[in-house]
Design goal:
The structure holds two protein chains of two kinds.
Chain A lengths: L30 H8 L12 H11 L3 E8 L2 E8 L5 E3 L5 H7 L3 E3 L12 H4 L6 E8 L5 E9 L7 H34 L10 E8 L7 E8 L2 E9 L3 H23 L6 H19 L3 E9 L4 E7 L4 E4 L5 E4 L17 E4 L5 E5 L2 H5 L7 H11 L3 H14 L6 E8 L5
Antiparallel strand pairs in A: 1-2, 1-6, 2-3, 4-5, 5-6, 7-16, 8-9, 9-10, 10-11, 11-14, 12-13, 12-15, 15-16
Chain B lengths: L1 E7 L5 E9 L1 H16 L4 E5 L3 E4 L1 H16 L3 E5 L3 H9 L8 E2 L7
Parallel strand pairs in B: 2-3, 2-4, 3-5, 5-6
Antiparallel strand pairs in B: 1-2
Classes of the chains: A alpha+beta, B alpha/beta.
Chain lengths: ~425, ~110
């Protein structure tokens, strides 16, 4: 592509820093390509999350067209394009490639007068662009990935003040690149960690769901099936969001690893299993100043017997088919409070028709009446619902319709009545 | 909104009073208030919860962190006058076993 010394980037050059361009060996991906891939922009070049910045640019400068453009080698992708219907084109036919080559802002007051630009297809042909202002969008290692820019079909002036505003808008786009793609991926990973594809167990129906209040949850939901029984977990780490999710991931793994000892006969007491898991995470929880409440259970489907530890969770209810209910709890503490305490395994024998509901305190926020009397509110919900799937669906709907302060997690297991 | 008030009694007991909602917003100032008291040599601390209208897990976390800090310094952290919602949350999590509620601030030590 020809060099295009812009006639009008004079007041702006000082805003751009000349990042050293690293020329990769033949066939090797460029730093920009690697970075675009890491930000998920090669797989999905058009992303509506950038539209608000393009719209904002159009509003600020009352311009007919604005784009957020990413450039991968010889191709320009209009990640967001408002005012024109375009997804991608050859990079050397765009204004934006000049910004990338200069690694600095570029302003073209009137492209008709500028030999470097007047032959571009969008200048010589429709929509006859005359004005362009673009600012580099960089990743956090200063590699220029693309631009944020405005276009007009009439010539314009662009002041130092305009340049400063455009530079700030570019910073917003850069933040969007990092934070949102990072959080989206965290959310995807956490959803992938949720128990899925649970094999049906004769005589039982089962449903569970966790709805995070932020993009990731500090609640944990787990279910693992062994030949010897089923392990399940509902737990809530103090706090919410990413910080809570990091801690919860390690607590969930520690519990699962120690429960495997129970499944394979190395351990025979669920209280000791929780104690052994605590030994693995106590230091981390203390360092983070956090603790975790949880209902840890081991179920034998053939007998209907549930062995459980309630670590300060207190939010499990067994609903009987006649509408009575039993709150399941203990006086054991959460994990992380004390390095020396132990937990006691308890036993619950379920009958046919019983429904076990275990939930996090986010449910208290969204289920009417639950804050005052969780057992009654949950029992009433179970009785008016059509099985575990329906209970979970209703709570999921509430979690999305009521403004919640906390993650909402619920697990429901029904032991079917014989002949049902 | 919440607010943390701190004073020392004539008997050298630190009294910390969180006013309003004790959630993530107030948790940090509460922990900092307790740490400051301990660093100044006051390791017996009462958290007066009489003005606390609501507590969540972050608030509980701050109380537990404060308790650990006081005990490390050879003292203790006790809670007084919890409201109904606070009592319920403490009972639900069984944390009333390590943070036994006292009826008044004076009875705490």
């Amino acid at each position: 592509m020809p060099e295009r010394p812009s006639t009008a980037d004079l007041p702006l050059t000082q805003l751009g820093s000349d990042a050293p361009s690293i020329t990769p060996a033949r066939g090797e991906p460029t730093a920009a390509t690697l970075s675009l891939a890491a930000h998920g922009l090669l797989d999905a070049p058009v992303q509506s999350r950038f539209d608000r910045y393009a719209e904002l640019a159009r509003t600020i400068w009352d311009a007919p067209i604005s784009t957020v453009t990413m450039i991968d080698r010889d191709r320009a992708y209009f990640t967001s394009c408002v005012g024109l219907d375009l997804t991608d084109m050859a990079a050397d036919q765009t204004f934006c490639s000049s910004v990338v080559h200069a690694s600095a802002p570029v302003v073209v007051p009137d492209a008709f007068d500028d030999p470097a630009y007047r032959d571009l297809p969008a200048v010589a042909g429709e929509p006859h662009i005359r004005f362009y202002a673009g600012h580099p969008v960089r990743d956090r290692w200063s590699t220029v990935l693309g631009t944020v820019c405005i276009y007009d079909t009439r010539p314009r002036e662009f002041t130092d003040h305009d340049a400063a505003v455009l530079a700030q808008l570019a910073r917003c786009v850069e933040d969007e690149l990092d934070t949102t793609s990072d959080r989206d991926r965290a959310g995807q990973v956490q959803r992938a960690l949720q128990p899925r594809d649970v094999q049906p167990v004769a005589g039982y129906s089962f449903a569970a769901r966790s709805v995070p209040t932020a993009l990731v949850a500090g609640d944990a939901l787990d279910h693992v099936q062994w030949d010897t029984g089923h392990y399940f977990l509902v737990a809530d780490v103090m706090g919410k969001g990413t910080a809570a999710a990091i801690l919860m991931a390690s607590v969930r793994t520690a519990l699962r690893a120690r429960v495997a000892d129970l499944a394979t006969g190395i351990a025979d007491d669920l209280g000791q299993v929780v104690g052994a898991a605590r030994d693995l995470v106590q230091h981390d929880l203390e360092a983070a100043g956090s603790f975790v409440t949880g209902f840890v259970a081991w179920a034998d489907p053939s007998s209907g017997r549930l062995r459980y530890v309630d670590a300060g969770h207190g939010l499990t209810v067994l609903v009987h088919p006649d509408g009575r209910w039993t709150s399941i709890g203990s006086d054991d503490l959460p994990l992380g409070v004390d390095a020396t305490i132990g937990w006691t395994e308890r036993v619950l024998d379920t009958e046919e028709g019983d429904t076990l509901v275990c939930f996090s305190d986010g449910v208290l926020d969204v289920l009417p009446g639950a804050e005052a009397d969780p057992g009654r509110a949950v029992a009433e919900l179970v009785l008016r619902s059509d099985g575990p799937d329906d209970v979970v669906r209703r709570v999921g709907r509430l979690a999305h319709s009521v403004p919640t302060r906390d993650d909402v997690t619920i697990l429901v297991v029904r032991r079917e009545a014989a002949g049902a | 909104m919440s607010d943390i008030q701190v004073h020392r009694t004539d008997h050298g007991i630190g009294v910390v009073t969180p006013v309003g909602r004790l959630t993530m917003v107030a948790a940090k100032p509460l922990t900092e208030a307790v740490v400051a008291l301990v660093d100044q040599g006051t390791s017996k601390v009462v958290v007066d919860l009489g003005e606390t209208t609501f507590i969540d897990s972050s608030g509980l976390g701050a109380l537990i962190a404060g308790l650990k800090r006081c005990r490390q310094a050879g003292g203790d952290l006790r809670i007084a006058r919890p409201t109904e919602q606070v009592t319920t949350v403490l009972r639900l999590t069984n944390l009333d076993k390590v943070l036994t509620p006292r009826a008044t601030v004076d009875e705490a030590f």
